[in-house]
């Protein structure tokens, strides 16, 4: 039986965190959860510590001093997962925008389709986004078009943050060399996985915008993606991707 770890970064997620933890643990497959908690002032960590008494050995938390960014949160989680020898490592938001039931679909893509990276894709079968303003839908969709044009990756949802990696992918990627730290981190991780020649499979999901808590999206994040992708592509010409 595989060891499966779901990494969930949190900052001010007290409205969602207990519900998402309970839903994941009630799925008909064995998942553990690692929370990367960035000193939320709203008491998110207190809720997690209470739940750790109930879910001993299954619910883990790494607390960091300050809001240090999405990319660094996941890299901390990846290193923890590698150290503890998990077979499949998942990325997931705390706010239910990523349907927890589709953790099983991502896992199945790795088990049954031999995917090294399975992506929960909003755009592989049309545009499957609920409760987003049209402007944000268009921005997200055309961001993926832009990334495909620059990188030549054949991935429809290049900015997706709902994913499952085989451990060997994260062991191969030089995690400390990943430069993009905001949401563009998701692009760089996919690009690096693709450059190493790993098999990537997109799994259709329906993405639903959060109903509780506050979105972390900002204009600075968007700008990082636009210019960061060009810098990433240029830098790739000078790197070796031999496994």
What does the average pLDDT come to?
91
Q: What amount of the residues lies in strands?
A: 15-25%
Query: Strand-and-helix sequence, N→C?
Result: EHEHEHEHEEHEHHEEH
What is the fourth-level CATH superfamily? Spore Coat Polysaccharide Biosynthesis Protein SpsA, Chain A
Give the structural class.
Answer: alpha/beta
Largest sheet: 7 strands, mixed
- Rounded to an integer in angstroms, the radius of gyration calculated over CA atoms is 17 Å
Ends distance: 26 Å
User: What is the number of independent domains?
Assistant: 1
Helix segment tally:
8
Low-pLDDT stretches are none
Q: Predict the CATH topology.
A: Spore Coat Polysaccharide Biosynthesis Protein SpsA, Chain A
Order of strands, main sheet, comes to 3-2-1-4-7-5-8
- The coarse overall form would be globular
CATH domain class:
Alpha Beta
What is the number of beta strands?
9
Indicate the percent of residues in helices. 40-55%
Describe the structure.
With 243 residues, the chain is α/β, with parallel strands linked by helices. The protein has a single domain, classed as Spore Coat Polysaccharide Biosynthesis Protein SpsA, Chain A (Alpha-Beta Complex). Helix content is 41%, strand content 16%. The protein has 8 helices and 9 strands. It has a 7-stranded mixed beta sheet, sandwiched between helices. It has a two-stranded parallel sheet with strand order 6-9.
Give a quick summary of the entry.
With 243 residues, the chain is of the alpha/beta class. It is 41% helix and 16% strand.
């Amino acid at each position: 039986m595989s060891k499966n770890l779901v990494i969930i970064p949190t900052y001010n997620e007290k409205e969602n965190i207990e519900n998402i933890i309970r839903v994941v643990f009630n799925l008909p497959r064995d998942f553990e959860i690692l929370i990367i908690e960035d000193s939320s002032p709203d008491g998110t960590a207190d809720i997690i510590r209470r739940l750790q008494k109930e879910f001993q050995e299954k619910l883990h938390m790494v607390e960091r001093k300050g809001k240090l960014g999405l990319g660094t949160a996941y890299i901390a989680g990846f290193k923890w997962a590698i150290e503890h020898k998990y077979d499949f490592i998942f990325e997931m938001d705390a706010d239910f925008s990523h349907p927890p039931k589709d953790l099983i679909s991502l896992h199945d893509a790795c088990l049954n389709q031999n995917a090294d990276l399975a992506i929960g894709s909003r755009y592989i079968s049309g545009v499957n986004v609920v409760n987003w303003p049209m402007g944000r839908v268009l921005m997200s969709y055309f961001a993926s078009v832009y990334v495909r044009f620059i990188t030549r990756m054949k991935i429809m949802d290049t900015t997706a943050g709902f994913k499952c990696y085989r451990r060997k992918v994260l062991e191969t990627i030089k995690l400390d060399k990943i430069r993009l730290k905001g949401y563009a981190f998701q692009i760089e991780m996919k690009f690096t996985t693709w450059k190493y020649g790993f098999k990537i499979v997109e799994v259709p999901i329906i993405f639903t915008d959060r109903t509780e808590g506050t979105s972390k999206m900002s204009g600075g994040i968007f700008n990082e993606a636009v210019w960061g992708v060009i810098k990433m592509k240029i830098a790739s010409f000078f790197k070796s991707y031999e496994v």
